[in-house]
Amino acid sequence: MAHHARGQDDTIIVNTCAVTTTAERQARQAIRRAHRERPDAKIVVTGCASEIDAKRWMELPGVVRVVPNADKLKPTTWGDSKPGLPPSRHARALLQVQQGCDHRCTFCIIPYGRGDSRSTPTAEAISRARALTEAGHREIVLTGVDIASWQGTDGEGLGRMCRTLLQDVPAIERLRLSSIDPVILDPETGDRDLWWLLENEPRLMPHLHLSLQAGSDLILKRMKRRHTTTQVASMLQHARALRPNIGVGADLIAGFPTETDTLFNETLSFIEEQAIPFLHVFPYSERPGTPAARMPAVPNGERQARAAQLRAVGEANRDTFLEKFVGQTVNVLIETPDRGHSPEFAPVRFAADASPAVRGSIIPMSIYSVSEGHLLGRSPA
């Protein structure tokens, strides 16, 4: 992602990602394109891909500097002596509470770019959340590489931090969790405060996006994930008992090394049985230097075909889930004049004859139909 730097004439900042080889290739292409279009511009590179191999990025045309991840969020790195919040562009605001990861999933390069897990202290999260609500944000999304591993100085976990945040910053109208490791929501051993919030706190959005990756126990083991399909099924049953319309998302990798047709079908069946509506499906992408890259590979065409099958099941699940809302009135956070999201993170579009809504407002919409993966709504009569 390229940005023009504030207060730095003719400087282009490229923030790289190392999650997939495609992301890395696109960043290199962006740098070469930027240099072609503006040969006099200074290009500064930061992010995970450049963290892993700074020297390779310095060799690209026009690159004058590689900024370590640890420094990229410090205003002084960019010559700004006044620490402030990034300019607001969204109705919902992202609040990063954690960085890095202590786990070593066999497919993942992230720990090599982001380092070990580091948690934002609760007091700092509170002051950032206050500033965000004062700037007019109605919804705050807690983000990080592995937010489930968030830990406070007294050993408290993510749920306790969320409870404190909601208690100390009453102006937060909606608090949402970004992608989360399912282990934290094991009904037996998971975070009791998170379960308390799901049961008792309407300001915590009824939406969980799980870092699931597979629905086959053998593949999960080879990925070195820490959850089992039984745990996830139990957690979903528990969550749906507390919040019947909870929106559930999942990240999935299709065609992980050693995945046979039989093992893939286990994942496909699991997604169908668990009726998970919001899928992010990625065909497996080799990352050199990771254990999975040395395992027997699934042919690329097969990975793409399996990803397509998973997406088709996801779309069927999504439509069934969305149909539940027809006839209901839902509160929608407005992101553009004609669309927004429900608390469950269901996308909502407004009737063509609806008057434009104000970005950042939360308005009730009467849902009358489902179309192309969206709820269709109009103002209640």
UniProtKB/TrEMBL annotation:
Its cofactor is [4Fe-4S] cluster. Keywords: 4Fe-4S, Iron, Iron-sulfur, Metal-binding, S-adenosyl-L-methionine, Transferase. The keyword Transferase applies. PROSITE patterns: MTTASE_N, MTTASE_RADICAL, RADICAL_SAM. It comes from the Bacteria. InterPro entries: Elp3/MiaA/NifB-like_rSAM, Methylthiotransferase, Methylthiotransferase_CS, Methylthiotransferase_N, Methylthiotransferase_N_sf, rSAM, rSAM_horseshoe, rSAM_sf. This is tRNA (N(6)-L-threonylcarbamoyladenosine(37)-C(2))-methylthiotransferase MtaB. It comes from Gluconobacter cerinus.
